[in-house]
Amino acid sequence: MTNREVAQILVRIADILGIKDENPFRIRAYRNAAEVIYRLEENINDLHRLDRIGDIPGIGKAIKASIKEMMDRGSCEYYDQLLNEVPEGVLQMLSIPGLGHKTVRVIYENLGIKSLEELLKAARANEIQKLPGLGAKTENNIIKGIEMLAQNAGQATLGIASPAAERLKNYLLEVDAVSAVSVVGSLRRGKPLVNDIDILVEARDFLAVYDHVNNYPGAISVNRIQPDLISGQLTYQIDFEIIMVEPEDFYPYLVWTTGGKEHREIIFENIDIKNLRGMNNEEQVYEKLGYQYIPPELRENTGEIEASRTGEMPFLIEKRHIKGDLHMHSPWSDGGTEIEELREAAREMKYDYIAITDHSKSLTISGGLNEERLSAQGLVIDALNRQCQDFTIFKGIEVDILKEGQLDFADEVLASLDIVVASIHSYFNLDREEQTERILRAIRNKYVNIIGHLTGRLLNRRPGYEVDIDRILMAAHKHQVALEINSHPDRLDIDAELARRAREYGVKIAINSDAHHKQDLELIKYGIINGRRGWLGPDDIINTWDKDRLLQFLNKK
DNA sequence: GCCGTTTTCGGCCCGACTGTTTTCAGTCG
Predict the structure, then answer these.
(1) Tell me, what CATH number does A12's domain have?
(2) Largest CA distance in chain A
(3) Cα A254 to Cα A198: distance, rounded to the nearest angstrom
(4) CA dihedral A222, A225, A227, A231 (to 10 degrees)
(5) Were A184 and a residue from A106, A229, A257, A364 both cysteine, which residue would form a disulfide, CB within 3.0 to 4.6 Å?
(6) How far is the C-alpha of A437 from the C-alpha of A324, rounded, in Å?
């Protein structure tokens, strides 16, 4: 079992205990243990072998015993027992926004409802509003919530799909008869939510590939649909398809299977793909088809074909262009890695600078900084900066944008910082006009440099709030405020479409990790993909700039 | 359930909104 899978079971135990209304501190102990294991750098299997699971902070006697059981047989007695009391379908109700453990418990105990389908039926039959403490609004909310979940059903974020695809890819490369493997389809194009994982395999022996895949430990099911096509499902209910081709067919099929449907239909119009055999790379395939090479992220038929014909392909951002990360958290608020260690991790990524942007005081749950602690943190950062001359830690804040658009700190406080990221963490349901005005007011503040996760969307969980994008882009340009591409795979906010519009307005972008742990710094790769999908180049992105140019941008006024 | 002790049990992030009530419980960040 992977760390992630162990953590997932612990979370589910916590969820069931919540529905059972157990001691909240006990529940938190399980959640905490899950979090610790999820973040753990060591592989939990290795620790198990060395009998060192008990050394992990937050893991005591009871949880250690459960984890050991999971290592040995994939589950544990305690969890199995709990699942008997509270079935899977009841746990799924927790993913409906606004429904927590108490409400789910009321529904389950009073109506005996065990699945989302049954719940939807009951809500539509107005059974829910008859329950104690629940009313028509909650009932309506349940219907809307289930419909939203159904809409995204089976869609996986890049954070889930991408590592799963990489693992499968590496597994396929173990086969002797396999000479090349590439992830293709919407995942290669970097769509934030994908229906499945598609993989193209270059092989001399298709049957050998099938035999190997059949033994893949990460697969729940494997079927051979056609001689050259395997389909199945991986853990986390992600469907996959493996397309096998002979070596001389690899590159034309790489282009064929990567592009979106419309893109493919246009560039392969009146072409027999068999005539393209023997190509050595994708560039050659595009050339043969009469086009300049088009990067995978752009193959959506949103103007890239015209640009390719006229030789006007954009120069896109790449990982190597990134010189720093301008949004991350330390243990001063809700981060898990000390500032010094964040610096070391950033240096390993070849960055020149980072900004520490902890939460501000109104976000109490996240340990938001007040003025005193912020200035104390500044002294620590000054001391760290004195230690090394070739790397800069910027003093920053992720300041809360309050209800009316005021900021959580006075201007004098913001003025003392190198960088100010302003974000919304409350009042998500203001109407479009109010929300827009609120953000505009923050943009007009002369110390604000970046608006963090602009729309507040959470993929698969919550749509972004309604705002008047054009007014915001105009203001951002006028007041020299950058918009963030938040790289967390659950956010990717702003999205590619918006990023592309921002560019047209001349608005600059910051691609940030919003890391809460040093491992999260790597999430920036998803933000970069998102930026590429938004046709952005290094010049559009302020954290590809060297320190002097960046400082010039930050010191507007 | 875990931790950290003043070694054997008490303490363990909070504040505001929403929808249900008719004074507050549940959810969320």
Answers:
(1) 1.10.150.110
(2) 70
(3) 11
(4) -40
(5) A257
(6) 31
Q: Which of A36, A52, A86 is the last residue of a domain?
A: A86
Distance A25 CA to B15 C1' (A): 19
CB atoms within 10 A of CB A117: 12
Phi, psi of A549 (to 5 degrees): -65, -40
Bases of chain B below 7 A from a protein C-beta are 1-3, 11-15, 17-21, 25-29
DSSP element (H, E) containing A141: helix A136-151
In this structure, what token pair is assigned to residue A223? 């079927």
Residue in A532, A484, A540, A533 with CA at minimum distance from that of residue A512: A484
Residues packed against strand B, CB within 7 Å: A 23, 25-26, 28-30, 33, 57-64, 97-104, 129, 132-139, 141, 334, 363-365, 367, 425-429, 458, 462
Structural domains counted in chain A: 3
Instruction: Measure, in angstroms, how far nucleotide B6 C1' is from residue A538 CA.
Output: 60
- One domain, residues A537 and A390: yes
A214: tokens are 């059949």
pTM assigned to the model: 0.92
Co-location of A332 and A237 in the same domain: no
Residue A156 token pair: 């996986």
Q: Would you give per-residue pLDDT tens digits along chain A (557 residues)?
A: 889 889 999 999 999 999 999 999 999 999 999 999 998 888 999 999 999 999 999 999 999 999 999 998 888 999 999 999 999 999 999 999 899 999 999 999 999 999 999 999 999 999 999 999 999 999 999 999 999 888 877 789 999 999 999 999 999 999 999 999 999 999 999 999 999 999 999 999 999 999 999 999 999 999 999 999 999 999 878 999 999 999 999 999 999 999 999 999 999 999 999 999 999 999 999 999 999 999 999 999 999 999 999 999 999 999 999 999 999 999 999 998 999 999 999 999 999 999 999 999 999 888 899 999 999 999 999 999 999 999 999 999 999 999 889 999 999 999 999 999 999 998 888 889 999 999 999 999 999 999 999 999 998 888 888 899 999 999 999 999 999 999 999 999 999 999 999 999 999 999 999 999 999 999 999 999 999 999 999 999 999 999 999 999 999 76
Mode of pairing for the β-strands spanning A156-157 and A193-194 = antiparallel
Are A333 and A214 in a shared domain?
no
A460 and A395 in a common domain: yes
Please tell me whether residues A297 and A391 are part of one structural domain. no
Look at residue A150 and tell me if it is in a domain: no
- Give which of A294, A289, A273, A280 is closest to A251, Cα–Cα: A280
Side-chain-facing half-sphere of A42: CA atoms under 13 Å: 11
Range of the domain at A168: 156-309
